[in-house]
Design a protein that fits this description.
CATH topology of the largest domain: Molybdopterin biosynthesis moea protein, domain 2
CATH class of the largest domain: Alpha Beta
Mean pLDDT: 92
Oligomer: single chain
Largest sheet: 3 strands, antiparallel
Strand order of the largest sheet: 1-5-2
Low-confidence stretches: none
Structural class: alpha+beta
Number of helices: 3
């Protein structure tokens, strides 16, 4: 089965999830490596350290049609938010948000 990368607050993540990206503290020191399987103890420690989010792999039961629909909806939503004329900086922000939405939807 496929897996999907999703972002969670440590309090919303579940034991057994696998980290997709390494976690560092505010000073840039490595706390956990990508591939670490989360336990309740690890999640509690992350909460106590004030880690705001983590990136985990979760099973993805969606079919290709559902993924395509979600990607189209994400694009439509971003285009609606950024409708009308804008500046180069606004266009850059729109592109960054769209890329993020597409990456997290895949």
């Amino acid at each position: 089965m496929k897996s999907r990368t999703m972002f969670f607050a440590p309090g919303r993540a579940a034991p057994g999830m696998t980290l997709a990206k390494a976690i560092s503290d505010r000073d840039g020191h490595a706390l956990l490596a990508a591939g670490t399987v989360l336990t309740a103890e690890i999640l509690d420690r992350l909460i106590r350290r004030g880690v705001p989010t983590l990136c985990a792999l979760v099973l993805d039961a969606r079919d290709d049609e559902t993924i395509a629909s979600e990607l189209a909806n994400a694009r439509t939503r971003v285009e609606t938010i950024f409708r009308g004329a804008g500046s180069p900086a606004r266009d850059e922000l729109r592109t960054a948000i769209l890329n993020y939405r597409q990456e997290t939807t895949k």
